[in-house]
Each structure stands twice: as C-alpha cells, then as structure tokens.
Amino acid sequence: MTGAIVHGLDAVPQPTVPSIVTIGKFDGVHRGHRTVIDRLRDAAAGRRTVVVTFDRHPLSVLRPEAAPPPLLSVDQKTEALASAGVDLVVVIDFTPEFAALSADDFVERVLVTGLGAAEVLVGADFRFGAGGVGTVETLRASGERDGFTVALVDDVCESDGRRVSSTGIRAALEAGRIAEATEALGRAPRIRSLVVPGHQRGRDLGYPTANLAAGAEGYIPADGVYACWLHVDGARYGAAVSIGNNPTFGDVPDKTVEAHAIDVQLDLYGSTVELEFVEFIRSMRKFESGEALATQMGLDELRIRQVLGLPSDDS
C-alpha cells in the first residue's frame, strides 16, 4: 500500500476517523525512522496514520551554515515514507514564518486543526515551536488540554550500541563505507539523476558510460569506483560506477558520476536513472595513460561481476 502525499496543511483531506501522527525530518528514512513508522501502523487501531515532515532541513532556515546536505531529496523522502504503508504523508514548508510559531500555535495549527490528532508518536529529543521550547512534557500537557495522547518511541541502535542516525550515515558514505550505510539505512544507498552527454572517454576506452547530471537526488558517496545496480524504466543492470574528477586526464574540474552498464548497450541520454550502491571497489587515482586506466577498468569490472554475481567474460 502506498499512502497519499500532500504539500501543506491546507491540502490535508478532512479525516473520517481520528489520526495517529508522527513528526520529524526523516532524513534518509533509515532504520530508526522505519521503526517509528512500524510503531505508528501497529498502534493505528483503525485510525488514519499520518507522517509529517518538512521540505528542507530546519537548520537551513535556523542556522544555514550548520545545515547538513540531505541524504534524500524531498521527492525521494516522501516516496519512501508513502511506500512504508502509512495513509498520508504531509510535507510542510519550513519557512521562517513556520519556524516562528509558538509551541501552542504549532500544536493548534498542525496537530489539532490541521490533522485532528488523537495520538502523537515522538522521540525523547523531540522539540517544537519557536526556539525549540516545546518538549515531550509540554506536548503531553497540550494533549491533556486538546484531547490527544503522546507516546515515546525508543532509538534504534547498531550492534555496538551507537544510535542509528542520519549523521552517522553521512559519515559512512563520505568514507565510502557502503556496507555500514546500508545496514543503518536498511537498504542500499541510492542516487538518481538525468543522463547527459559527457567527454566520451569511456567509449574511447571500451567502457561507454552514462554521465549523470549535476545535482543528483540523494547523497553521493566518496570518490572512487563502486559496484552498483543501475535502474532505468523498471529494469536493473549491473554497473561499474566512477565518482570523481577523472585525475588521469585532469580536465574535469568538478566531481562527476559515470556508470558503465555491464553486458548491455543502452542509449540512456535524456533518461532518469537510479544507482544503487552495493560495494566500494577502489579509490580514485591518476594513471600514467589512458591505456593503463583501461586495463584497471577491466580489472574493476571483473571484481564488480563477482560482487554482483554476474557471469565473467570467460564463463
């Protein structure tokens, strides 16, 4: 079941039953977030399940210099939330005006009038209202006044006791630790973007690549070569993916993402593709010549075939 997605409280359908609500940034929709959503669904008891999130990280308004880059675009995030089995995903524009709402106004506009909340699920560190003055305790007091209850959801931790967090996932991706990020996310990291023309060097070297446009949705991991699955038009292909500025040739000033689909020739220009990262293969480095790079690319592909379970050329 995929829930409805609406933008703004004015677009929320009026409920025929009370709502059970959770609120958060949900950056990455990781295992911790999914635990909250599972708890929401389990506790629904015939009520409408609602997830409230924001169109940007609140810090981008409150302290822009401290705002982290998102793990998912707004579209990716809302798609993931809607597919988690809730009835409704509500995206609120986190504007300066919204940030200035008092705690009481937040409760009245969002929870009471906007959503008709009967129960609200939050984490122990939940804050709301201007200056973050609203706490779980003040939310419970508001609930006693306005007719809703508040339930706490415990953090989800890794095997070593560390809390699963968006910050930790970003750190893992920045270091190319794909397995660690996958464990915390509960799924492989993904990015998606439009395929645009590149320098055609991969084709000249015998490994034609799809070059992703700048501004890809999702969090691009560390420079290097990766084993990936390439998704396009409902199909999946094994791929060798290179991230970096191609130091062998030295004329690519910006970081680029290039994907070579294995065992298939695809005309992807103008298509939107999604890359699912499976394993880090090696770091980006400069080679003495294009021929040396091509030799290494052949070795990379052999390793990637093993990782993805694809047949080797001589099998």
Quick take:
The chain folds into two domains: 4-152, Rossmann fold (3-Layer(aba) Sandwich), CATH 3.40.50.620; 189-308, Riboflavin kinase-like (Elongation Factor Tu (Ef-tu), domain 3, Beta Barrel), CATH 2.40.30.30. The protein is 29% helix and 24% strand.
Largest sheet: 6 strands, parallel
Q: What is the level-2 CATH architecture name of the largest domain?
A: 3-Layer(aba) Sandwich
Residues in helix, % = 25-40%
Distance between the termini: 41 Å
Overall mean pLDDT: 91
Kindly provide the name of the CATH class of the largest domain.
Alpha Beta
In terms of per-residue confidence, which ranges show pLDDT below 50 for 5 or more consecutive residues? none
Strand fraction: 15-25%
The structural class is: alpha/beta
CATH homology superfamily of the largest domain: HUPs
Element order, helices and strands?
Answer: EEHEHHEHHEHEHHEHEEEEEH
Number of domains: 2
- Could you name the CATH topology of the largest domain? Rossmann fold
Gyration radius from CA atoms, angstroms: 23 Å
- Provide a count of the helices: 10
User: How do the strands line up in the largest sheet?
Assistant: 1-4-3-2-5-6
Number-wise, the strands total 12
Shape: elongated
